[in-house]
Specification:
The protein has 368 residues and is α+β, with helices and mostly antiparallel strands. The chain contains eight helices and 17 strands. Helix 1 packs parallel to helix 3 and helix 7 runs antiparallel to helix 8. The longest helix has 23 residues. Keywords: Hydrolase, Magnesium, Metal-binding, Transferase.
Length: 368
């Protein structure tokens, strides 16, 4: 049986390959190779390539040798989630090998694949995602994991952003020992359970603590503000948390908000969500705050903005994406009424109240 595989795409990135294999791989087992009459193309649906037969072209990659049957099983699990399966080929130097190929109509081919460009932008996220995917190996079938992959990728992108945004609070930098970590639930969101010890302020280590946290991605929140008309736009929609808390008000007022999609910066998300939820084009973003809304129990991280724009009469509408089953109503409120709502605690959304007081502080500057 052939255990030499030709990698033309993301698995050319050694750290990613080692995560999938669950072991380190010797540089001697990875050598440069080419496959004639094939070409690798980026696909529209994700940051990975597909390979297609193409007369006269050459696909560059790596030949991996010394793979075990367990290695192949792990690779099949990972690649199968993207609907790639092995087929036999003969490389340019006559070496028989196998390569992962998808059905021609499975993905939409775009420009030629650029491995270096992919590595610069996507390698870190792909490694984080692969850790979660391979964590399900032996427990969930690959099709189940494939259905969860958009959420897995979003959680992975949140980790990339986590490494980029640091408040630099000048706080205690004590030791942390994770004794055990278990994924207790995974789906649209996820929950991890941990056993851990941490350094105390007196230098001693704590006892082993049992903790858990809810895993959510980064989100961008934006409050549209018209400095000429001195009014804001808020949105109203049904929310799950009030249902779980037996709050009689299921529909809540909020700023425009949405998850930061993989590859996006929070500012891009804010602009996109304003268009999707309220049909607005924002002229400029003012950064208000970045941080955890509930650091004791959730990885959720908010990037909060005020967006300057025109808000004439008739701007309010029903918006949202049908593909995401969104039903969102926007509402225009004068700044005076908006601040009064915050002061009488009629805004049950903490970021929205924060925005009201930030705007009260900066309103004169924005209107000048």
């Amino acid at each position: 049986m052939i255990t030499a595989l030709f990698f033309y795409g993301t698995l050319r990135h050694a750290p990613l390959l080692e995560i999938v294999l669950g072991r380190s791989i010797s540089p001697a087992d990875l050598v440069g190779a080419t496959l004639e009459n094939f070409a690798a193309y980026a696909v529209a649906e994700g940051p990975f390539p597909m390979i297609v037969a193409s007369s006269g072209e050459v696909a560059e990659g790596l030949l991996a040798t010394g793979l075990t049957q367990e290695d192949i099983a792990r690779l099949d699990y990972y690649e199968g989630g993207f609907n790639y399966d092995l087929r036999e080929v003969v490389l340019a130097h006559g070496q028989a090998a196998q390569v992962y190929v998808c059905a021609p109509d499975r993905w939409t081919a775009q420009e030629p694949w650029d491995f270096t460009a992919w590595a610069d932008k996507w390698a870190s996220m792909s490694c984080h995602a692969a850790v979660e995917v391979m964590g399900h190996y032996g427990n969930l079938d690959r099709d189940t994991v494939a259905r969860m992959f958009p959420q897995i990728r979003a959680r992975a992108w949140s980790k990339v952003l986590g490494a980029r945004y640091c408040a630099v609070q000048d706080v205690f930098a004590g030791k942390l020992e994770v004794v055990k970590q278990v994924r207790a639930y995974t789906g649209y969101f996820a929950v991890d359970e941990l056993s851990l010890r941490h350094e105390r302020f007196d230098g001693t280590m704590s006892q082993v603590l049992e903790r858990s946290y809810f895993i959510a991605g980064d989100a961008a929140l934006v409050l549209p503000y018209d400095p000429v008309r001195d009014r804001v736009l808020v949105v109203e929609q049904m929310r799950m948390a009030p249902i779980g808390r037996d709050d009689p008000e299921i529909w809540h007022l909020e700023p425009i908000a949405g998850r930061v999609d993989p590859g996006e910066m929070p500012e891009q998300t804010a602009l996109r969500e304003a268009q999707e939820e309220a049909g607005l084009e924002l002229d400029r973003l003012e950064a208000v705050a970045r941080g955890y809304p509930s650091p004791g129990d959730s990885t959720g991280y908010y990037h909060i903005f005020v967006g300057l724009t025109d808000l004439p009469d008739g701007t309010a509408c029903i918006g949202g994406l049908e593909t995401e089953a969104e039903n969102i109503r926007s509402r225009l409120i004068s700044f005076t009424d908006f601040l009064a709502m915050a002061e009488r605690q009629a805004l049950a959304n903490t970021p929205l109240a924060l925005l009201a007081y930030w705007l009260a502080h900066h309103r004169s500057r924005l209107r000048s």
